[in-house]
Structure formats: C-alpha cells, structure tokens
Amino acid sequence: MEVYFDNSATTAVYPEVAEVMMKVLTEDYGNPSSLHMKGVDAERYIEKTTKILSGILKCREDELFYTSCGTESNNMALIGTALAKRRKGKHIIVSSIEHASILATAEFLTKEGYEITYIEPDQKGMITPEKVKEALRDDTILVSVMLVNNELGSINPIADIAKTVKSFNKDIIVHTDATQGFGKMEVVPSKLLVDLLTVSAHKIHGPKGIAALYVKKGTLIRPIIYGGGQEKGMRSGTENVPGIAGFGVAAEIAYKKLSENVTTMTALKERLINGLTSYENVYNNSGDAPHIASLSFVGVRSEVMLHSLEDKGIYVSSGSACSTNKPSKKGSKVLRDIGLSEEMIESTIRFSLSENNTEEEVDYVITSIGELLPMLRHYTRG
User: Which candidate in 271, 322, 325, 370 is catalytic?
Assistant: First the structure.
C-alpha cells in the first residue's frame, strides 16, 4: 500500500486540473498579451480563474495578482511594502514561526536597513494579539503573521491581531500567509481585516508554479519585478496561463466540497492521533487545522522514522519541505519556539492529510508505526 501523508508539502492535482492544463498547453497556448484570437482565448482563462478566486475570497477582481509561488507572493508583500513605506518607518513585525519565505525575506530587509521584531508563539504555537501589541511602535509599517502554521497546524487569530494593529495605527499594513489555510477553511481578507494575503495552488490539488497575492484596494505597495507591465503593472512577465487555469479549477472544486472535506480530514486526523498516542512516549503537538498532525516519537530520530515509513510506502515529513532556516541548533525552529525539549524536537513527524486519504490508510500507518517503534527504539538504545 502507498500512503501519501505529506499534503502540506504538495498535493496531487485533481484530474480536472490536469485536463484543463493540457488543453491550454496544447490548444489554447496563445500569449494573453497578444491581440489575436489565440491571445484572447488565453486571456479568458485568466479572467475565469480571477472570477472564481475573487468569489471565494469575496474581494474585487482587481485586487488579485498572480505570482509564480507562495514564496514570490510573500516576497512581494514584504519587500513591496517596505519599499513603498520606507519614508514612514523601517520597523516590521513578523512571527518567529513563519514560513522560510517570510523569515528569509525579513533577514534580507534587515541587511537593507530595516528593523525586524520577531514575535514568539505560545506553547500551542499561536501568536497572540497581546504580544503583537507590545511590539508595535510609531515607526512600524508592516505586520506579517501566518494564518495556519505549516508544521503544527496551529491557527492564528488574524482578525484579532489585525484589529489590534489597526487600532494602534490604521496605516500599518497587515499581511497574512494563508497558504496552509486556503482550501481548508473560509479565507476572506475583509473578515480577517488584512491588507495583503497569500494563497497558492499546489496545496489544494492545483499545479505547482502558480499562486496569488491579494492586495486591498488603495494599499501602498511597490512592484519588485519589472518588464512588460502585466498584472496591472504589479508583476511583469508573461502569465502562466496553464497554471492559472488549473488554479481556478482546483479552487472551485476545493470550495464546492469544503465542508465535506474538512469533516473527512478532521475525522482522519483524530483517528490518527488517537491511534498513535496510544503507544508509549508518543506526544501530540498538533494545532486545530483539520489537515496537519504533529507528533513526537520520543526515542526515535525523525529521519530514521521517516525513512522506515518510506520503506513501507508511507510518505510523511519531518518539518516544512521549504524550510531553509539555519538555527544555531539542529532541528525545527518552530518546535523550539513552542518550548519542546531537544529530545522531542529531534523525534517529531508531520502528517498532513487531504480529502483523498482514507481510514484504511490511517490504520495502516498506525499499525506500521506500532511495529516499528519497539525495533527502532531498541536500535537507538543499542
């Protein structure tokens, strides 16, 4: 049996996504900037996806800008805001448990003369409005806090954080990386009270290589890629029409059956956690997101468990697939920031589910780990 429990890293595309992408690649392959009918046909795919996404996000169509990935969207959000507002101040607040594309960009901005304050989470992996409030200053220009943490599945109170920030100074820009929340819950920028919001296709059974940044109308932000003026001048470069078309189909499918999918994933996650924590010295670190389970198998290094499971056809993760952080100590910075011991950090596995997973797969994983744990712990002690 093959079991794919690494859906937070990426997902298999829906068949309908592959179908529309193949059509664009082989038939409707025109450049959307071209004035002839091939170009017009390509442009229609972009317009259709924009309509779908704006409907899901409940935003204006002209508030959406396509990028190559969540990383680019996050770079655009931080660097674009920093450039646009540098005369107002150079202080930026981010959480310490952000995706590498936020933390690495913050590091870059530090070298450019900006000052970054990192907010640490509580023991549940959540960023509180109170901690953000303590960090706000008169020269603060941007606050970026992710909606769902990609390692723990903790859900941050973004609306409360944004309300706190805007009460202090309505001109401070608020960004949230909603990559791990989109397709798993309602994501509406106006309800979250944010100015900028990142979503990505390949986490929701869409293609890799396409994402979007929501930019609230009137928000001060500068482009970071220049050229032919595509994407209303905000992101030049020929649009990835196959990717955009696939993104639209994936988003439409995901949100048509959102409630059903969340119920399925929540039940599978609960079954998995209950089964695994019945074993000795297995601890649950998971947040409330329906699709992410983080567990520590004390006495077995995560890499050893990961490859032992791979031998049984089970694919999991020992952390974020995109992490490029270089903490002073080995292991996940996120897990360290929530106060886990080194023993737990080095033994943590992330299981991330999709609606395609089954109870049979969950039970196979539980049984497999039950068989592996005694052997691997004995090997480690030996």
Answer: 322
Instruction: Fill in the amino acid letter for 98.
Output: E
Q: What tens-digit pLDDT sequence spans the chain (382 residues)?
A: 999 999 999 999 999 999 999 999 999 999 998 989 989 999 999 999 999 999 999 999 999 999 999 999 999 999 999 999 999 999 999 999 999 999 999 999 999 999 999 999 999 999 999 999 999 999 999 999 999 999 999 999 999 999 999 999 999 999 999 999 999 999 999 999 999 999 999 999 999 999 999 999 999 999 999 999 998 888 989 899 999 999 999 999 999 999 999 999 999 999 999 999 999 999 999 999 999 999 999 999 999 999 999 999 999 998 655 554 444 446 789 999 999 999 999 999 999 999 999 999 999 999 999 999 999 998 765 4
The Cα–Cα gap between 52 and 284 comes to 37
Taking the complete model, does pTM exceed 0.85, yes or no? yes
CA 295 to chain centre: 19
**Residue located via tokens 């002209």:** 62
Q: Is 69 a catalytic residue?
A: no
Alpha carbon distance 304, 299 (integer Å): 11
* Strand (E) or helix (H) holding 367: helix 359-381
- Phi, psi for residue 179 in degrees, rounded to 5: -55, -45
